C-alpha cells in the first residue's frame, strides 16, 4: 500500500472523532434543567454509574432524592469506557497494597470481585438489556517477557481470594484467542456489555422510581452546614446530605484536588466486521482482552461485530482540567496498535474515536469518604479505570451509609489517601510517570516488530 494511500486512510479514520462516547446519544426524553429552589433528603451531583446506583438505593430506603447532572446521564466516563464488567484482575496491586494489612487487602479484592455479581443482579432487577456477554476476560501477554509479571500478579490475586487460572500458549489457541496474545490470566467471572445501554437502563429505573433528575444542570457551588445549599445556574437544592459522584470532575468543584487527578483515556471503534473478517479472528467466546503492558491495551468484540480498543496512551491535563477535545495522537497510536495485534483487520475503517476522563489517586485505590464541618458531604472518586462494576456497587453502599448502615466492604475503603504535590510539580510527576511507562511499552513493542520483520 502506498504511503499516500495509507495517510489518506489514517486521516479519514481520525476524522471520525465524537465529542460523545461511542456508546451514547443525548436521550430523547432529556429531563429539564433545574429552575427555582427545591429541597430533598439527599442531593446527588453526577448521573453516572455511582450516582444513579446511589439514587436507586436511597429511594428504595425511603429518601427523597434529587440528582443533578451537568450534561445528561452517562455523558462522562459511564458512557465512554470499554464496557468491561470486571473484578479484581489487572488491578495495580503493587501500588494499592502498600502499607495495608492482608485482611484489608483481601477485603478490597473482594469489593472488586463482588461488584461483578452486584451488577449482574441489578441488570435482572431493573430488566436492563445491555448486550451482556458472560465470557470472562483475559489479561494477556504479547511478549514472553510479560509472563513473569502476569504470573506474579496472579499469585497476589489468588492469595487475596481472586479466582483465575493461567492459560498457556496451547490453551489460548484452543480457546480461539487471536494469535498475538500468547498466554494470559483468565478470570471466568464477568464479561463485556454495552455501557451506554447499562447507564441508560439505570437512568430509566431511576425515573420509574420517581428520582428527580435534572439534566443540563451543573453544580456551580455549595455551602456547607446542617442543610447544604447547592447552587446551579438557574436554581438551588437544599438537603441535609450531598453526595458528589463526579469522579474525574471532582477537583474542579474544589474537593480532592490534592488527592486525585483526572487522566484522559481514549478509544477507537472499527466498522462492523464481515463474516470473513470475523472468521479470520476466530475468538468464538468473545472474551475481553487486556494486555500486560504498563499502559494496558484492551480489545473486545461488540454485539454489532465491531472491535473497540482503548487506553494505550494516557495524559494528565495541567491543573486537573477536563476539556472535551480530541486526542489525535492517542487515536493514531491505538489505530497502529490495532493493526499490529490484529493484522487481518488492517483494511477495516474506523467508525468512531473518542476520549474521556477517569480519576486516580497516587495509590490507585478508590477515594471515598465524608467531609465538611457536619460530615454530611459524601464523595466517591478514583476509579482508576476499573469503575463500571465497582462504582456501581460503591454508589449503592454509600446510599446505605447515608441512611445509617455502613457495609463492611465500604468501611474497608476508608483510609488516608496520599497527598499529591501542587502544580506544576503534579503535572511533571504524573506525566513523567506516564511517559516512563510509555517508553517501556514502546521498547517492548519494538522488539515485537523486529521479531516479526
From TrEMBL:
A Gene Ontology cellular component where this protein is annotated is: cytoplasm
Q: Give the superkingdom in one word.
A: Bacteria
Q: Which gene encodes it?
A: puuB
The FAD dependent oxidoreductase domain, residue ranges: 41-400
Keyword terms, alphabetized:
Oxidoreductase
Asked if Oxidoreductase is a keyword of the record, the answer is yes
Give coiled-coil spans as residue ranges.
none
Which InterPro entries does the record match to this protein? FAD-dep_OxRdtase, FAD/NAD-bd_sf
Molecular function (GO) terms for this protein are:
oxidoreductase activity
Q: What is the name of the protein in this document?
A: Gamma-glutamylputrescine oxidoreductase
Its EC number(s): 1.4.3.-
Entry keyword RNA-binding: no
Q: What class of enzyme is it?
A: oxidoreductase
The record's annotation in Pfam families points to: DAO
Question: Known PANTHER family for this protein?
Answer: FAD DEPENDENT OXIDOREDUCTASE DOMAIN-CONTAINING PROTEIN, SARCOSINE DEHYDROGENASE-RELATED
